[in-house]
Amino acid sequence: MRRVAIIGTGMTEFGELWDLSFRDMGILAGFEALHDANVTSEKIDAMFVGNMSAGRFIDQEHVGALIADYAGLAKTHIPSTRVEAGGASGSLAIRQGFLSIASGMHDIVVVGGAEKMTDVGDDEVMNIQSAAADQEWETVFGATYPSLFALMAHRHMHEYGTTREMMSSVAVKNHKHGSLNPKAQFKREIRPEDVERSPPVSLPIRTLDCAPISDGAAAVVMCPLDMAKNFTDRPIEIIASAQASDTLALNQRKSITEMAATRVAAKRAYEMAKIQPKDVDVAEVHDNFTITEIMAIEDLGFFEKGHGGRASLEGKTGLQGEIAVNTSGGLKSRGDPIGATGVAQIVELVQQLRGKADKRQVPDAKIGLAQNVGGTGATVIIHVLGVGR
Amino acid sequence: MRRVAIIGTGMTEFGELWDLSFRDMGILAGFEALHDANVTSEKIDAMFVGNMSAGRFIDQEHVGALIADYAGLAKTHIPSTRVEAGGASGSLAIRQGFLSIASGMHDIVVVGGAEKMTDVGDDEVMNIQSAAADQEWETVFGATYPSLFALMAHRHMHEYGTTREMMSSVAVKNHKHGSLNPKAQFKREIRPEDVERSPPVSLPIRTLDCAPISDGAAAVVMCPLDMAKNFTDRPIEIIASAQASDTLALNQRKSITEMAATRVAAKRAYEMAKIQPKDVDVAEVHDNFTITEIMAIEDLGFFEKGHGGRASLEGKTGLQGEIAVNTSGGLKSRGDPIGATGVAQIVELVQQLRGKADKRQVPDAKIGLAQNVGGTGATVIIHVLGVGR
After folding, report:
1. Is the Cβ–Cβ distance between B294 and B309 less than 8 Å?
2. Contacts with B128 from chain A: Cβ below 8 Å
3. Which end of chain A has less neighbouring CB within 10 Å, N or C?
4. Which one-letter DSSP state was computed for residue B120?
5. Are residues B177 and B155 in the same domain?
6. Number of domains in chain A
7. Are residues A223 and A325 both part of a single domain?
8. Are residues B94 and B19 in the same domain?
């Protein structure tokens, strides 16, 4: 396999972007990434687009071709591929871009992720999000995306003594990080009591335990590592790409206090990258709910199973902690435009490994890890990045 | 790049499959392919699923994980990836499976395609299909999928003298082939006058110019060519995979009597396979409407531009013609469950190159080509298959 590097990144601000259409967002993120990479558009060989549900959000499938078209790339007829795995759609696009270069098929590849969620009503957003869970065994009976994670949270509290306070600490920390990120949807800090007084969604999950509904797009430019030095002094290498699946429905799993797919994908990723969990300096993990981050930092091996809540409360995952988690603000505070999220995680890690993360910089960050979840963990994708040599 | 072979195929019958759910169909096709390949499910390294719009047809996104789950593969946590490019979703899955093996990432890969279209009303099917065209510039103004192809047909008639009779001959030929295919949706022959008397959809396109609405799934098993001999005496190699895009909206194209993406993808495919159009013995092309097959056989270089209609009328694309086109019955007669179609094309070519196509066998077929179209040609994917050596 050829080694693959990221040479440019771009993203829109995340939030309620009333003035930008789906196609506008895709173009803005893409052009920022091309500019950052010093690549002109006629050099692009292929594009991959992560998107969960444009078919339902904006009545538009076939968004791979759409974005290529609006980026002016129809004239070079580049292949453009849309991939989907619920909330993990963005990192799935990263992975397909990686494979297409690793295989030798393509050299310069743009990977984008985008979702336009705010053009439909809130109820409909909930229905659409929940379509990443099992329609026949969960959502048709009224289970929603938050209610499924509430089951996990309850059980995690029961088995490990995880508390309301620990969950709140995750939200507080991620808002703090988000306040340092100019592109975050929420750039303001919150207090634990804000989380605890926020309206219940599906207890124990409250409004401020949840990632928001967001519009946004993110993009990266990739190429073979041995070509990357032509474009940048500091290419960031994708040193591992791993993906695992699990049952779509929660009720089929042995445990709902862990994501088995995270554990399996992490094992594969650590082997491929030849690293241990302790080698990771900075991680972006999937915090669609506060409990999800707690499970992630356990399943990734950063903390022992059942200790993730306490570690969060003790500040071990903050910028000055043992391992900096969700320095971007995470889904919680940076925002979660579904298909864009996995790509935005990579954008953040690249900034960190370049040493360009400004006020949220993790000193001397050398290894970054991104974990991105689809559904309630039926797809988990992990990428490990390092400074290219 | 590692060389890649197909070692097994499976598919459901196509049609209105009231007794089979989306997941049932996926499993049936997949298990038939595994059985054909002599591969047990624990040997599978990854899965790719082509599907256009399960989110709207059955309220279910995340169908990569769904199919892996219902195939019993959640226990081995294999990566499973859904891809989408409108009507080209199936061949897009073939291509991603191909890249994943060519790269060295995976060895044994199952590629499936599936769509369950008949669980929603006919009007809604039309809306969903049309979402592969440009929502902002076409469908929002009332353009539908058939009406866009009707524009192409009218212009083709105007520029090249293509006639009603020529278009009818495509439908007649494909129904004839379909009558020889036990898995075809329509296993009966039709006469030219049946096409000409069928109700108008969007003139010049009549009902019998159109591929039907279908349920169905198809699957193949792939592995590196050098491993294929462990499973089969006659592996079928993917000797080229090429993909090209074009503008999503018709009105942005220089010509609507050709698909530029077909011409570009064909050029790339012929170069990669080191063949000429005349070397192709059997082709499955995208005949969602009769005019689409006429354009395809021109744009693929089988016949001169403007001569495709006459060639069809003269029987040059029949089983005994110069080049056998759509021996399966094509989308027209075999059926067109959108995400399954591109995979079903490959299933047919594998049968032909194995010499196992029974009454529709093309004598001594050595090179097969599949051309699969998304939208009105904004994505075209071409694969060339040969007998593995």
Report:
1. yes
2. 55, 61
3. C
4. S
5. yes
6. 2
7. no
8. yes
Question: pLDDT tens digits for B169-179?
Answer: 999 999 999 99
pLDDT at site A276: 98
The residue of chain A with its CA nearest to that of B80 is A245
Dump pLDDT digits (tens) for B119-159. Answer: 999 889 999 999 999 999 999 999 999 999 999 999 999 99
Contacts of A133 in chain B (CB under 8 A): 62
CATH number at residue B8: 3.40.47.10
Whole-number Å distance between alpha carbons of A291 and A168: 9
Tell me the HSE value of B328 on the side-chain side, using a 13 A CA sphere. Answer: 32
Round to whole Å and give the CA distance between A148 and B197: 54
Q: What residues are paired with B244 via a beta bridge? A: B380
Q: Which of B197, B228, B259 is the last residue of a domain?
A: B228
Of the candidates A74, A103, A132, the beta carbon closest to that of B245 is on: A74
Q: What is the pLDDT of residue B67?
A: 96
- Across B4-137, the runs of DSSP E, i.e. the strands, are 4-11, 46-50, 80-84, 109-116
Distance from CA of B165 to the nearest CA of A (A): 33
- Encode pLDDT of B211-250 as tens digits: 999 999 999 999 999 999 999 999 999 999 999 999 999 9
Please report the beta strands in A210-267, taking only residues with DSSP state E, as ranges in sequence order: 215-224, 236-245
Euclidean distance between CA atoms A208 and A190, whole angstroms: 9
Q: Which residue has the tokens 């005019």?
A: B291
A364 inside domain: yes
CA distance B145 to B147: 6
Q: Kindly state whether residues A157 and A19 are assigned to the same domain.
A: no
Contact B252/A74, CB-based, under 8 Å?
yes
Nearest to B135 among A59, A81, A139 (CB): A59
Nearest to B135 by CA among A58, A69, A115: A58
B206 within a domain of the structure (yes/no): yes
In a domain, B71, yes or no: yes
Check whether residue B95 and residue B191 sit in a common domain: no
Within a domain: B233: no
- Residue B93 shares a structural domain with residue B145: no
Same domain membership, residue A43 and residue A176: no
Of A1, A375, A378, the CB nearest to B104: A1
Same domain (yes/no): A261, A168: yes
CA–CA separation, A344 and A25 (whole Å): 13
**DSSP conformational letter for A17:** -
Query: What CA–CA distance (Å, rounded) separates B20 from B7?
Result: 26
Provide the residue type at B273 as one letter: A
Give the domain range for residue B157: 128-211+238-387
Q: Are B56 and B39 in contact (CB under 8 A)?
A: no
Residue A175 and residue A186 in contact, taking contact as beta carbons nearer than 8 Å: yes
